[in-house]
Amino acid sequence: MATTEMVDLAVEVSKQAYVPYSHFPIGAVLLTKDGEIYTGVNIENASFGLTNCGERTAIFKAVSEGARDFQELIIYGQTEKPISPCGACRQVMAEFFEPDLPVTLVSKDKSTVVMTVKELLPYSFTDLT
Length: 129
Ligand code: THU
Description:
Elements: H1 3-13, E1 26-32, E2 37-41, H2 54-64, E3 70-77, H3 87-96, E4 102-106, E5 112-116, H4 117-120
Parallel strand pairs: 3-4
Antiparallel strand pairs: 1-2, 1-3, 4-5
The structure holds tetrahydrodeoxyuridine (THU).
Tetrahydrodeoxyuridine (THU) binds next to helix 2.
């Protein structure tokens, strides 16, 4: 699927976000090297710290179904500038994605910035050695 189509899909899936507290929906689309698509949204909780971000939902769905090789991630939020993923999500990206994997960040008017995982989280902690 082309990046522009995945941006549109991220906007569409964000409508499934469970956001009764923030009212700030996020949609994520994760493309595997096989061309499979996994989507995700943020899922909040009355105990706020239990909230799962949209991009982590997509990554966890994919990993839980056996996917390991990823090509591209799209994250959409209703922000003025392209959405900036939180630190926890950057760490999860570093766990499962190659350092040069492109992450397309999308704003409410669909303007985009593409950053690699290593640009989002330089000098990341990735193993115990
Ligand atoms: N959120 C995401 O899902 N992804 C991001 O990249 C930024 C923040 C969510 C978490 C919470 O549900 C809401 O946005 C406000 O922080």
